[in-house]
Amino acid sequence: MEYDSFIDFISLVYISIWYDHMFCDISVAVTTYMAVQRCCCVAMPLHFRSVFTNKRTAQALTCISGAVVVTYLPVFATQGLQVVNSNATSRKLVLWLSPRRPTVQGVNDVINKIILRSAAQIIVAVCLVVLAVHLMAASKFRRNLRSSRQDGAKQRESPASISRPDLQVIKSVTLVSVMFVLSNCPRLMFTYARRIEPEFNVLRAYENLYYVLSQVCNLAECMNASLTICVYVTHNSRFAAVLRKYLCCHSDSVDE
């Protein structure tokens, strides 16, 4: 007897979305590390100039990515697709979840969605304040130094003025940090809701609401990634130059 095989699309989406969550959490951890790195280099450059070398940074990013991947291995091991007979002549691949899935998912939520993202928001906010304060102090010091070298100068720059490069850096860091915090809020609230209400999950009473709000969280994270690039292009001339150079080279290779 021949069978017609079908794949349940919702089940396939549910399984694949966890890989998206893993890469998003890696991005959160890497963003937090980069914020700490920039903050330390600006606040105490003499102490940390030799600490954050290219080799050590590559090693740190590798360890961070590896640690996040390890926390997701139990999640991947407790989900999959299984074949069921929907009727006499057709079979379907549907979602399979291990009996230990609620425990595994709960641990993953606590580690990656609550602890990691809550800590990331706090750390990024603190780094933002420290970075802004030291950039303003450095700008004021340079203004005073230039003023002291001007013999017979009758007017000095206003103490409230900030050089354009410093102002652009402060704006870019502020915008990126604010978007980072705002884009993480939906995911945090989504995770807290899933922890508080057991029926807010797949194959439970609020399954449809779970899928809808999950896509809202994904949309917020995608918008953050897209807008971050726009911020760097607008406020970071070096990033914009490298991006234009890459796009031009890629366009030339395609034309050839």
UniProtKB/TrEMBL annotation:
Gene3D superfamilies: Rhodopsin 7-helix transmembrane proteins
Transmembrane segments: 12-36, 57-77, 114-137
SUPFAM superfamilies membership: Family A G protein-coupled receptor-like
Entry superkingdom: Eukaryota
Residues making up the signal peptide according to the UniProt record: none
Keywords on record: Membrane, Transmembrane, Transmembrane helix
InterPro entries assigned: GPCR-Ligand_Int
Protein name (record): G-protein coupled receptors family 1 profile domain-containing protein
Species the sequence originates in: Lymnaea stagnalis
